[in-house]
Amino acid sequence: LAEVTVKSRILNTLALVPKGQVISYGKLADLAGLPKRARMVSKYLKQAEEPINWHKVVRSDGKIAFPAGSLQAQEQCQRLMAEGIVIRKNKVNMSIYAWQPDIYTLLAKLEY
DNA sequence: CATCTGACCTAAT
DNA sequence: GATTAGGCCAGAT
């Protein structure tokens, strides 16, 4: 896969996450057709130019990936709360907020 | 080629 | 829950 398609797959998939919901790094990689590449997601999020929904990406257990209390963590919390998401102990409840898309309509939208 | 490094993940303790 | 160990992948050194 060309580098550019890897990046676009990730960002295109991320763009589909509905307001008020989140997704984990690993799940985003899976949905983007890049299994076992959670770390690539973080890499491309860091590179990406605004505006993207980077704040919707959290760890598989719902925790914010940035160090607690860091400026970036604060920014992410702020953005998530702005969407109505409740955060406690630096983490979101994945059983409530994790995006669970219908895989078939998703594949149709992404066209691959 | 060997090692290290990450906005990671899972399973086990 | 918190921590650890091992796994994982791609880039950088």
What is this structure's SSE topology?
Layout: H1 3-14, E1 23-24, H2 25-31, H3 38-47, E2 57-58, H4 71-81, E3 87-88, E4 91-92, H5 94-97, H6 103-110
Parallel strand pairs: 1-2
Antiparallel strand pairs: 3-4
The chain binds a DNA duplex (13 and 13 nucleotides) through helix 2, helix 3, strand 2 and helix 4.
Explained architecture:
There is one protein chain. The protein has 112 residues and is mainly alpha-helical. It is built from six helices and four strands; from the N terminus they run H-E-H-H-E-H-E-E-H-H. The strands form two sheets. Strands 1-2 form a two-stranded parallel sheet. Strand 3 and strand 4 form a beta hairpin. The two termini are 12 Å apart. The model has no long low-confidence stretch (mean pLDDT 93). The structure holds a DNA duplex (13 and 13 nucleotides).
